[in-house]
Every structure is written in structure tokens, then in C-alpha cells.
């Protein structure tokens, strides 16, 4: 699940925000997502792991308590294996625990359904403990008042309390399960008095005080614990509301924040939400906050208005109640180009051309609108399944986007104070030196770096520090890609990539459209056809392996 969306959460967003941008949504259908009064999915998965652990401990405890003593004590061996009452409760309890462990370990059982399985296990476990502890306890004994003195809360009571806390559920369900669990002791004792071979019997008052009252106290404690734990979980759900979306599962994290799988509360559409933690944005005065809010709103709206199919679609944006800055974007199924190359190696030249030309379509529209991405890199370019199409590129993370239109003093001040303009391995010389204007040709340079990565699996320049790499971008000449890969790189493609890496912006392709045409003219041994692309995806990312 973590590679479904590759919005690079470690990028340096430049916006400092305060307040709340209202969400305007028209919802027409209901989708099954966590409601505010329910536990979120990730907490349920953690609870499922705890259920597996507690089931293992339960089974191990019965194994040690019931079947280990007979190994060393012949008398105990006769008592345990001489009748079903001796070995049956332990064997059934261990079997039941192993079944729960298997269910809790299976990805096919939804965590929410597993919590209901846990309730049944909690009740059944109580009966197993009660039967193992009390069945036939007074067999063959004559009644003496001292026989009733030791009675009080047995092992069932702590089991009830611990289980409702470790395996959370709705308080109402937990209360019903606790009542059923607590009934195990009086039921077991009633049966053993009638069928267990004893003449000992309680009066109604003794039966209530010794066998019911202690477990009523345990039920009260269990209910309070269940209510507290469940409320904490539902508070987490409420805290994760971002506008009309609710966070479901964290997909990744980095220096600037986190990326979460999210669902709209009404529309049946999953999304990816990128959160930028407020503490990493620093502090500013009221004027800077106002400028940041205005700029953020303007740039988010501009990004949302872009219509290239190769630009990530922005659904929503805003500020949460705690000041967290968030984007809501379409959820993608695939790999970012950094992961693609690291996992599968450099791509064939014809595939590199196919991917880069799609990125040029996104950047061409952005540049036409006066927007410069400034952080083009493999981690911000995502290749995915998109409907019926595969090998479809999406350009992500316009968080450092800069407008070339109508710059204001406030914009300049904000940029100077808060922006680190790009990623060192993919920064154009003018970004490093700051001596020339930033324009579309800056993104062209970064596209050349991405092409170099796709063909070689290596960055254009490498060094021990970010400063060392940036200095190389200023003055060092890149080694031709063909000299750093075993794959055959056509001379025309190599020349196209190297032209993007010219130090002087005037010597690079002057637009994304020009670069796309240059790439289209490159000759390769064979084309990258839809059939080849589909075969690659069927081999490396079959649909059956995709989870949501």
C-alpha cells in the first residue's frame, strides 16, 4: 500500500498558513468509510495484532497449566487424561486460540470483522477458563463451610477486564460480551453442583455474594475501560478529518510531513492527502501569514485548474483545525520513477522517451500558465495504471511551484525567507547560483536529470554533500549517459538529454513542447508499444496484487 501514492513528503514546501479554507462539496452517495463514532482502520489493524498476541498467550497458558503438569506428575496425568472433563476444556481452548490466531493473521479477514470474532473469543475463553478451574472442583467432598471461604474473583475476572482493553470494541458490544463472559463462572458452578459429583451447595445469598457479585464489579471495570479506550480511538478519527475527507491509513512519511490514504465521507472515491506539519513551516508575523495564505490559495487553485491528464489532479486543499496544511489529490496505483529504477533497473531508451514526453505535456501547460515547478525529480514523477492505460505519467507535488506572473514584494519576501528551491541532485545552475531568472528552462534542466536517471540508474552528479553536488551543477560537465550504463543509448537520445543539461539556459530546448518534439525524433531499435507496456505491468504489477 505504501507505493500507491508517491507524493514526496520530504519536499520543502514554501507556504506558511493560518486559518481554515472552507470546503465546498456536493455529495450524492454514501460510501462505507469510518464514521466519527468508529475506530479508524489503522487502529483496528493494531488491535487485530494484539488479538493475535493475546490468543497466542491464552493458548500457551492453557498448554502450560493443563498439559505440562502431567508430564512430571503421574497422579496429575490420571486426573487430566482420565476423563473428558480433565483434558477437554484445555484442548478446546487451545484449538479455539489457534483458530483466532489464524484469522488474525489472514489478510482476508477485515479488521472490523475480526473485532467481532474477538468478542466471541473473549466469551468462549471465559468459559474455557471457568470449566478448567471449577468443573468438578468439589467432586467426592462432603460439605464444610470452609470450602466456600476461598471463593472470590478467579482468573475469569482479570481476563474480562484485560480483554476489553486490549481488544477494543463498541462499549455496548463490550458490555454484552463482558456479561456473557462473567456468566461463565456461575453457570459452571451450577452445572458442577448438579452433575459434578458433589453434595456441596450454596444458598441463594451465598451464590450471589461468592459467584456473581465479584464479576459484576469486573463487568463495571471492563465497561469503563472499554468506554475510555474506544473514545480515545474515535477522538483520533475526528482529529483526522480534513474537510470532507477522513484519513484512513498512512502511506508514507518524511521530513515535511506525511501522505495518507483518505476517503470522502459521502463520495465513493479514495484519495491521497499530503499533510505538511505546521512545526516545520517555522513562525512568521501576521503579514507573512496573510501573504502565505493568499499565495497558497492562488497556487492551489491554479494547479487544480490545469487540465493536462499528466498533472496530478487536485481535489481539495485547506488547513485543519490544528493548523496542518493539506492537499487532497487523486490516489494512484504504480511507482514513482525513483522507485521504478531502484526496483527494476534502468529502463530501455524507448520507454524513457515515452515517459519523458508525457511529463513534457504536464510541464508545457504549467509553463504556459506561468508556473514553474522547480522540483522536478524522479520521486515527483509517478508511472501508474490509469483506467485502462498503463505506463501513464503523473507529475506530482507542485508544492514549490513559482509563478512568473505579477510578482509582488510580499511574494519575493516570502520566497526568500522560506524556500529551499529544489533538490540538489536535480537543481539547474541558475537555481544554485541565483544569478538568472527562474523560468521553464529550469524545469527542462531537471527533466534532463530525470532522463539521465532513467537511462543509467544514477544521478548526473554525485558527491558526499549537497553543496558538493550543487557546485558540480554549476561547473562540471556531465559524463554522457552511454558511458554509465550497459544499455545501448541511441546517440540522438543522448544528445537530447545532454542538451537539457547545458549550463546556459539559452542553449537548452526552449520549451517543454520543443523537448517533446526532440524526443519524438530520437531513433530507437524498437518502439515502446502499448502491448509491451501492458506485458511489463502484467509481469511486475498485476492487478490482483493491488490492494486499497
Task: Annotate the secondary structure layout.
Layout (H helix, E strand, L loop, with lengths): L40 H27 L1 H4 L1 H8 L2 H22 L5 H24 L21 H11 L4 H12 L1 H12 L8 H36 L1 E2 L2 E9 L3 E8 L5 E7 L9 H20 L8 E6 L5 E6 L2 E4 H8 L4 H20 L2 E2 L8 E6 L2 E7 L6 E2 L5 H10 L10 H5 L6 H17 L9 H10 L15 H10 L11 H9 L9 H11 L8
Antiparallel strand pairs: 1-2, 2-3, 3-4, 4-6, 5-6, 7-9, 8-11, 9-10
Helix pairs in contact: 1-4, 1-5, 4-5, 5-6, 5-7, 5-8, 6-7, 6-9, 7-9, 12-15, 12-18, 15-17
Notes on the structure:
By secondary structure, this protein is α+β, with helices and mostly antiparallel strands. It has two domains: 41-228, no CATH class; 242-543, Orthogonal Bundle (Transferase(Phosphotransferase), domain 1), CATH 1.10.510.10. The protein has 19 helices and eleven strands. It has helices at residues 41-67, 69-72, 74-81, 84-105, 111-134, 156-166, 171-182, 184-195, 204-239, 286-305, 337-344, 349-368, 409-418, 429-433, 440-456, 466-475, 491-500, 512-520, 530-540, and strands at 241-242, 245-253, 257-264, 270-276, 314-319, 325-330, 333-336, 371-372, 381-386, 389-395, 402-403. The strands form three sheets. Strands 1-2-3-4-6-5 form a six-stranded antiparallel β-sheet. The longest helix is centred in the middle third of the chain and has 36 residues, at 204-239. It is elongated and about 105 Å long. Residues 1-36 and 405-420 have low confidence and may be disordered.
Amino acid at each position: 500500500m505504501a507505493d500507491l501514492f508517491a507524493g514526496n513528503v520530504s519536499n520543502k514546501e514554501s507556504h506558511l498558513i493560518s486559518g481554515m479554507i472552507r470546503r465546498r462539496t456536493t455529495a450524492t452517495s454514501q460510501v462505507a468509510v469510518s464514521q466519527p463514532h468508529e475506530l479508524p482502520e489503522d487502529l483496528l489493524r493494531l488491535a487485530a495484532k494484539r488479538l493475535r498476541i493475546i490468543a497466542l498467550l491464552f493458548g500457551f497458558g492453557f498448554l502450560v497449566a493443563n498439559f505440562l503438569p502431567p508430564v512430571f506428575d503421574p497422579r496429575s496425568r490420571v486426573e487430566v487424561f482420565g476423563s473428558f472433563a480433565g483434558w477437554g476444556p484445555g484442548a478446546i481452548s487451545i484449538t479455539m486460540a489457534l483458530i483466532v490466531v489464524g484469522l488474525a493473521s489472514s489478510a482476508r479477514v477485515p479488521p472490523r470483522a475480526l473485532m467481532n470474532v474477538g468478542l466471541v473469543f473473549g466469551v468462549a475463553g471465559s468459559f474455557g477458563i471457568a470449566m478448567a478451574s471449577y468443573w468438578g472442583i468439589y467432586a467426592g467432598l462432603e460439605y464444610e463451610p470452609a470450602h466456600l471461604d476461598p471463593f472470590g474473583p478467579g482468573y475469569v475476572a482479570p481476563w474480562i477486564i484485560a480483554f476489553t482493553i486490549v481488544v477494543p470494541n463498541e462499549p455496548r458490544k463490550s458490555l454484552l460480551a463482558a456479561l456473557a463472559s462473567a456468566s461463565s463462572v456461575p453457570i459452571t458452578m451450577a452445572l458442577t453442583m448438579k452433575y459434578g459429583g458433589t453434595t456441596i451447595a450454596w444458598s441463594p445469598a451465598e451464590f450471589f455474594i461468592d459467584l456473581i457479585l465479584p464479576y459484576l464489579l469486573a463487568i463495571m471495570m471492563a465497561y469503563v475501560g472499554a468506554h475510555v479506550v474506544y473514545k480515545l480511538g474515535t477522538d483520533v478519527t475526528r482529529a483526522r478529518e480534513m474537510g470532507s475527507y477522513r484519513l484512513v491509513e498512512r502511506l508514507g512519511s518524511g521530513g515535511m510531513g506525511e501522505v495518507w490514504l483518505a476517503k470522502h465521507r459521502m463520495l465513493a472515491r479514495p484519495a491521497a492527502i499530503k499533510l505538511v506539519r505546521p512545526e516545520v513551516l517555522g513562525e512568521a508575523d501576521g503579514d507573512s501569514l496573510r501573504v502565505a495564505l493568499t499565495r497558497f490559495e492562488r497556487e492551489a487553485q491554479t494547479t487544480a485548474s490545469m487540465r493536462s491528464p499528466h498533472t496530478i489532479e487536485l481535489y481539495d486543499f485547506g488547513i485543519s483545525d490544528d493548523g496542518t496544511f493539506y492537499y487532497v489529490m487523486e490516489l494512484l496505483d504504480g511507482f514513482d520513477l525513483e522507485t521504478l529504477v531502484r526496483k527494476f533497473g534502468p529502463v530501455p531508451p524507448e520507454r524513457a522517451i515515452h515517459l519523458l514526453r508525457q511529463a513534457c505535456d504536464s510541464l508545457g501547460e504549467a509553463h504556459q500558465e506561468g508556473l514553474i515547478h522547480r522540483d522536478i525529480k524522479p520521486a515527483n514523477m509517478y508511472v501508474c495504471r490509469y483506467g485502462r492505460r498503463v505506463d501513464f505519467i503523473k507529475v506530482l507535488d507542485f508544492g514549490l511551484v513559482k509563478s512568473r506572473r505579477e510578482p509582488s514584494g510580499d511574494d519575493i519576501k516570502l520566497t526568500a525567507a522560506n524556500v529551499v528551491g529544489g533538490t540538489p541532485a536535480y537543481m539547474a545552475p541558475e537555481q544554485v547560483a541565483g544569478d538568472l531568472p527562474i523560468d521553464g528552462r529550469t524545469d527542462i534542466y531537471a527533466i534532463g536529470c530525470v532522463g539521465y536517471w532513467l537511462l543509467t540508474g544514477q544521478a548526473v552528479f554525485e558527491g558526499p554533500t549537497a553543496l558538493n553536488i550543487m557546485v558540480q551543477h554549476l561547473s562540471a560537465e556531465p559524463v554522457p549517459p552511454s558511458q554509465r550504463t550497459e544499455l545501448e543509448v541511441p546517440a540522438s537520445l543522448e544528445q537530447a538529454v545532454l542538451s537539457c543539461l547545458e549550463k546556459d539556459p539559452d542553449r537548452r530546448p526552449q520549451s517543454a513542447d520543443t523537448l517533446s518534439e526532440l524526443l519524438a525524433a530520437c531513433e530507437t531499435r524498437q518502439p515502446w508499444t502499448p502491448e509491451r507496456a501492458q506485458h511489463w505491468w502484467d509481469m511486475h504489477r498485476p492487478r490482483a496484487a493491488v490492494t486499497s
